[in-house]
Amino acid sequence: MAFLQQLVLVLFLLRLASSATDRFIFNGFKDAKLTLDGTAKITSNGLLRLTNEIHNLTMGHAFYPSNFRLKIPSSSSPNGTVLSFSTQFVFAIRTKAFGTSGHGLAFALSPNPSIIGGRGANYLGLFNQNNMGNSSEHIFAVEFDTAQDASFNETDENHVGIDVNSLVSTVAASAAYYRAGNTSARESISLVSGTEIIAWIDYRSDLQQINVSISPITDPVKPQKPLLSATLNLSSVLKDFMYVGFSSSTGKLSSEHYILGWSFRVNGEAQPLNLALLPPLPTDGSRRRLAVIIAYSFAAGVLLVSVLAATAYAVYKRKKKLSDIMEGWESEYPHRFSYRVLYKATKGFKEKELLGSGGFGSVYKGVLPKTSETVAVKRITQNARQGLREFVAEVSSLGRLRHRNLVQLQGWCRRQNDLLLVYDFMPNGSLDCFLFDDEKAKSFDWEKRFKILKGIASGLLYLHEGWEQVVVHRDVKANNVLLDAEMNGKLGDFGLARLHEHGQNPQTTRVVGTLGYMAPELSRTGKATASADVFSYGAVLLEMASGKRPIETMVSEEEGEMVLVEWVLKNWQGGGILRAMDSRLKGKFLREEADLVLKLGVLCSQAVPDKRPTMRQVVQYLDGDASLPKDLILNSMVLHDDLGFDQLVLPYPHSGLQSSDSSGTAKQFTSY
Q: Which annotated residues bind ATP (predicted)?
């Protein structure tokens, strides 16, 4: 009898929860009555715009005006039972310039039809510095974040995360999706691409499981495998009645955050949006469309002339877009590709072909039309024309470099202010993808690591001593080591920092490098030398052996906080240097090789350039043609604070191995 009474109560409450307000759908927001605050507004054509590009350091909220019952009493749970809910929406993020954004948007459940106390910038309008992690906030959110904040444990500036009363996500992943029918290959999505993206968020009460999926609007089928999936008991997070909506913010860099359509339902799957009814995003071509509308009011003859003129203009624009506009000096340099060939090879530089972006531009996968050869095309935007000719001359010259451990530069192309560099395609990506991905690291054994380290050293020795000029790489790091199909390490991006120096005031020194890999003397002199490359290579040696980043802080009860090289040095001084080895290797490594790599990494990381070995010495050590000095004396670490920079100084006795460029000033240093 008691069971029947409970069943009747549950059925009654479920009926109450399934009232007329248990769902809604907006295919555009032209007639929607939402609760808006901050910069949020509904545009004339029905777009929900949360923030705009005009104002920075702002935030906007938009919530459905009525709340929803999302929790019912339960005898089995003191906090009640959370009902299932589902939502689907289409959003877009537009920025003023590629690669800049601030800061993102979030779908949120809140006890109030707004977010009380929320702040902009990295807080996404959801929280502030005082209430992060406070369970009394009762906020559940799914963030679409376009800025990286290390204090929130975020790994990149393009990710999706599930948040419970905090922006330190319960689970997060880089923005991507699985194509329909394919649950193994992930396709990356740029949240700031400016194009429409569909999002699905589903919570199943019976499994206490939340699933999040996204997909570009060009592939509108809901992926079979979600991007994020987590088991969450939301009974203590959600109140009985909650408001649903969106929150967004900008920082010092502003963005426009749009919602084009939105569907929501309690106890069931949200109704699919009608994509054909969604309002279009604003474009710069609005005036052109208005001119077309006016033209249609003219006589049939005028209309015909206009259509013919427009067609001719379109053909002209396309030909001009793909034509090669060369200046006279360009014909002097070999290895030049036509822009038309590279445009076709990359399918018009489509986002689908984008392999990645970095400090020197974006890299696209391409297939050359005539040879069907797969290549990597790096697209670099150079705003200053001054120095462009000198850079092209240098690129063409260094295109003659040939070494098995250098990514081969096949050629170049200039298009207005864009430089396009064509490289051999490396199917296994960059070294850091294997080293810092726990799944890939399982198969990344010591034999492969040691082979790659020897290859990188050989490539650097060739740059320093094996060509007609000394070539300084300037940015040796794991991210710039690429892996071919046989897992051979090849150095890429050597000397591209040079591009960013063209047109600079010669009286001004611009420090180029990556924190953790950059030799300390660069911050004082700004002059890159072969010894600075050795310092950077030392960081890679320690990375490969320990599986930790050079600027990653190591914490232990006895030693406090210290950076990687200090931690390795401490273990060396304590007589247990192999304790610094990557635990994921599970002790499967040759002790002699591991000992050599760790010690050599510390020696290369010395702050005084003259104390570091040359690359020739490094290669001889790794090849077993020379041994580290047996009389090596380790003093306590000495930190010098002169000139405002801490420097690690270790004694390094000369072993009689001399570099061919040890005179320092005898050779010209050229960077590419």
A: 378
Residue 292 binned pLDDT confidence (cut-offs 50, 70, 90): very low
Is 475 in the active site?
yes
What is the residue-wise DSSP string for 589-603?
S-HHHHHHHHHHHHH
User: Which residue in this structure is represented by tokens 């339960």?
Assistant: 74
Q: What is the pLDDT of residues 26-38, one digit of tens each?
A: 999 998 999 998 8
Binding site, annotated residues? 378
Model pLDDT, residue 456: 96
3-state secondary structure of 92: strand
Q: How much is the pTM?
A: 0.49
Q: Which two tokens stand for residue 122?
A: 């990295």
Domains, the chain, with CATH or none: 2-69+92-175+239-266 (2.60.120.200), 289-322 (no CATH), 328-424 (3.30.200.20), 431-671 (1.10.510.10)
Q: Which residue's structure tokens are 């202010």?
A: 417
pLDDT, one tens digit per residue, over 596-614 is 999 999 999 988 888 899 9
The residues pairing with 303 across neighbouring beta strands, listed in sequence order, are none
Using alpha carbons, select from 493, 496, 472 the residue that is nearest to residue 481: 493
> How many Cβ atoms sit within 10 Å of the Cβ of residue 315?
10
Q: What is the DSSP letter of 25?
A: E
Instruction: Report which of 219, 157, 162 is spatially closest to residue 187, judged by C-alpha positions.
Output: 219
> In one letter, which amino acid is 345?
A
Q: Which of 475, 493, 533, 661 is catalytic?
A: 475
Average pLDDT on 649-661 reads 38
Note whether 614 and 604 are within 8 A (CB): no
Q: Which residues of 218-247 are buried (b: 16+ CB within 10 A; e: fewer)?
A: eeeebbeebbbebebebbebbbeebbbbbb
Region of residue 429 (left: phi > 0; alpha: psi -120 to 50; beta: else) = left
**β-pair type (354-358, 374-381):** unpaired
Angle between helices 564-573 and 530-546 (to 10 degrees): 70
Give me the chain's average pLDDT, please.
79
Secondary structure class of 23 (helix, strand, coil): strand
